[in-house]
Amino acid sequence: MESVSLFVVGLLTAVLSLLGFVQQHPELPQASRDQAQQIAQQAITQATQTLEQTGSQTPATNANVTSECLVLTHDLWIGKSDEDTGGEVSKLQLWLKAEGYFPDAQGTGYYGEKTAGAMVKWQKAHGMDFVTTKSGVGKMTRAKMQEACSRTSSNIKIGNPYGGSYDLEAKIQYEAGIPIAVAEFHGGFNLGVYDGTSAPKEYVDFGDGASIAAEKTVCPGSDCYFQAKHLYPKAGTYTITLHTIENAKRINLTATKITVAKDGCEGTADAPYIAAILPISGPRGTSVEIWGCNLSGFEGDTDFTFESSYGQKVTIDGEASYRQSGGTSAKIQVQEPCHQGETVYGEYSGLPAQCVYTPILPGTYQVYVTPWSKKSNVVNFTVTQ
């Protein structure tokens, strides 16, 4: 029995080492990363089968390895089931239960609203501040799972969230005719959780399901501050809260209220809508900020389509949207996403392909977004000479 336990310990230790190596070397080809995930999953399965066959239990020093080191190979979202994911939905549900995010999970094998809600809690506790229940589990979440698996709790340091004074102010400023809420925080020092390499984080919760992480806190002298902007879809009075995260738990620090007199977006509650594009014209390479509602799709992806008057389309990724949940803005650069003859790699598959090059020429383009196959309204952007 002791030899079996030692075998399992060695096997699971090797799994941790393999996943840790992959995490520390992002330059590895996606095919190699996928192969490592498959090897790790096979090793965990072998360890489980060995313990079941011998009737032994996982050694105490590795009691949480199977819950902490879940390896998924499929993208998951609401509607997915064990049948089309090789049993990965029920594995995820039981893993979330073991992690403490889904205490009543039964391993039903169907990814529904309850599973999505539990997954969002885990994602936000691990820095994915932009997610909603529609975001699902994809490449970015799987990478976070590997990171959590290869990192021990001794590597986590907690910043001091107590003491000092905090000042949170909010106001409405109009940009291109739409009401943008501006929240500004002042405080004596940085707050939040950090891992020794990244800075502490603060978060602003806008009171309508949207929040934003302050990734770059400016500290002139002893006063640290940051500014966060948000477009409220509907008029009303909202409570804006400043909070931090300690041991995956939210700690509220201060709050203020703001009254919005005008709806920021039109249409139904879940329909994508572009409220404004700033600026509305400029040469190729212009940086543009797009404001709206329900702009993001799977795992927070925000891909804007620029369609010319003669039907050619260019898709540009709104990279800046990844730092907030319920995001209402994205920043893009009006230029081709790849160069002619360049080899590009699939965002989720990692497979190589030739760039489908479409030049952005002077003219007026229709701009829209299609998250979850729902097309937004159209706004115009003119590319000048």
Automatic annotation (TrEMBL):
CDD domains: PKD. Residues 85-132 form the Peptidoglycan binding-like domain. This is Peptidoglycan binding-like domain-containing protein. Pfam families: PG_binding_1 (PF01471). SUPFAM superfamilies: PGBD-like, PKD domain.
